Amino acid sequence: MEKNIKFRGYLTFDDSLKVQQALKPRRLVSPVAMVTVLTLGAVILAFSQMNIEKTMAIFMLVFLVAFMGGGFWLMNTSARKSQKRLYAKACVKRHGTLKADGIQIKKGQNRHHIPWDSFDKTVEIDGILAVVKKSETLGFAKYMFSSESEWSRARDLIKDHFPQP
């Protein structure tokens, strides 16, 4: 390799979430959907036992759906904001170098060398390339490099170490 490839910073919070979502095992039915269906089923069963007028039952179901949807949205938004703040705090200024034998990272006064064989595979999604070891990832994106050509060289270097099937 002619020269090392320098990078700086971290993936943005949103890009980091994309990588996490790509690595998350797919579920046939989400837990939120199961809770929602079971709750609505229980309410419908209760309404049928109470002999509530049909229009009132529909109104109450619509209200319950709106209330539950709003609650899920609020909890999700709150959790996302909290995670974003924690992510920003955890992102201590760093820069590094991609080398033929691994990744050199400098955060503050600490230096770490991570050999390529420490990782199992790569994940590429929406212009983000991440090297992965179990649930741990180290992601790279175009904005972390000084030029388009540096980003292209970095992608080639990483992909050379982890050929896709």
Characterization of the model:
The chain contains four helices and seven strands; from the N terminus they run βαααββββββα. It is an alpha+beta fold and 165 residues long. The strands form two sheets. It has a four-stranded antiparallel β-sheet with strand order 1-2-3-4, covered by helices on one side. It has a three-stranded antiparallel β-sheet with strand order 5-6-7, sandwiched between helices. A hairpin with a 2-residue loop joins β5 and β6. 14% of the residues are buried.
Spell out the key features of this protein.
50% helix; three-stranded antiparallel β-sheet; 165 residues; 7 strands; 4 helices; elongated; four-stranded antiparallel β-sheet; single chain; alpha+beta
